[in-house]
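Standup notes
- DV: blocked on the single-chain target, sequence here:
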Amino acid sequence: MGGTRELTDEAPLAPVSVLLLHGLGATGAVWYPVADRLAARGPTRVLAPDLPGHGTAPRHATYTVEGAAAYVAAQLAGEAALYVVGHSFGGYVALALAAGGYGVQPRGVLTVGTKLSFDTDEQARAADLARRPARIFETREEAVARYRKVSGLDARLAPDERLLERGVVADGAGYRLAADPATVGVVVPPFAALLAAARCPTLIARGEGDPVVTSAELRAVAPEAIDVRGCGHNLQVESPAALIALLERLRRG
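- DV (later): unblocked, structure below
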């Protein structure tokens, strides 16, 4: 299963619920390309919430993987055949749910583009940014440009502005990013520990050109991890078909 692969999403999905979890700085709107394809393929219930401190979700006093998992789990009422897909930070939240400790037990979890290593300088920069107030921009265009940079959704990759929904809000006479600056200070538990605690099948993947996590890093904790050819960090936008193919592979075991 490891290695770089060509993936397609031609096979239909049976009726399931799919929970899609975005990364830091983004919102659930980043999943529109995947959600549209899933909706076109049959009776699949798709949920793509904003995580705490992002978009329209409430702000928390502190941000943790456990807090995000509890927040998401509270919105899942009777989702029987549930599969969870987490991008980047969302991958940590997805794996936390995989342990079944939040009143939810997924049938499978897929993570894509999840960063595993954080050096001292990165942690210090994140802590500094988390303490700063939100930057106010004079125009919405300036704020959107900043949001594109933060979320990795540049105009070439994401020309569809639906993907930017809820990422920018008005603030007085100006505009700011919707995300609470404190979210960047979140400290994640070890990925390997979350993976070991999972009580359902898991599939770990990255785009082969992802600068956030290397193939070697992933395979050190998940030897069967998959590299998706021709993609970078935002697999859900770059190739929604490939992401759905991964989901289908997970579902079929």
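- Follow-up: The mean pLDDT is 91.
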